[in-house]
Amino acid sequence: MNKAIFLDRDGVINHPRIIDGKPYPPLSLDDFKIIDGVEKALNLLHDVGYYLIVVTNQPDVARGDISKDKVELIHSFLKSNFPIDEIKSCYHDDSDHCECRKPNPGNILKAAEKYNIDLKNSYMIGDRWRDIEAGISAGCKTIFIDYSYKEKQPVTYGYKASDLLEAAEFILGDI
């Protein structure tokens, strides 16, 4: 079986927009800014054999704030510039009650089946409670990147990091 790093997008790979202490996704490729250390972190994890799979909620599509085409343009940029194997997106809002929207683990489980992933030896890295709960529900180890957002925080997680590079260094020390 294979191992994977499941990554949230906004707040883990790129800077989110912060409004009233809460994170929101960028609304264009021009506003999409990669966090320092992300390229190094992704390369380190890729080089030791992890699949890198982005699992992201993009409810602004359902809300009409951004088009699916603009989100997919951002994702094309990511896949063209970084060693990302797949991006699993949920374009629904909470009211849709779908299985792919975190904290539900649907997109993690779909990717795990496609790539024959051993979930208990894989990680979910996120900056919000939804990411961590999805990882726990899927059976992954979890790493919480804590930005002290003004919202619900995860109750439990495996490790707390300041950014993706610190998370990658922790993972490398764990193998």
From TrEMBL:
Cofactor(s) listed: Zn(2+); Mg(2+)
Any Gene Ontology CC annotation: cytoplasm
Gene Ontology biological-process entries: carbohydrate metabolic process
Residues at the active site: 8, 10
Localization per Swiss-Prot or TrEMBL: Cytoplasm
Entry superkingdom: Bacteria
InterPro entries: HAD-like_sf, HAD-SF_hydro_IIIA, HAD_sf, Heptose_bisP_phosphatase, Histidinol-phos
Keyword Coiled coil found: no
Site keyed Contributes to substrate recognition: positions: 101
Enzyme superclass (EC): hydrolase
Entry EC no(s): 3.1.3.-
A Pfam entry, by short name: Hydrolase_like
UniProt xrefs under CDD domains: HAD_HisB-N (cd07503)
Binding positions (Zn(2+)): 90, 92, 98, 100
GO MF term set: metal ion binding; phosphatase activity
Site (Stabilizes the phosphoryl group): 56, 102
Keywords, alphabetical: Carbohydrate metabolism, Cytoplasm, Hydrolase, Magnesium, Metal-binding, Zinc
Classification via Gene3D superfamilies: HAD superfamily/HAD-like
Protein family (similarity comment): Belongs to the gmhB family.
NCBIfam families membership: HAD-SF-IIIA, Histidinol-ppas
Protein known as: D,D-heptose 1,7-bisphosphate phosphatase
Organism of provenance: Candidatus Methylopumilus planktonicus
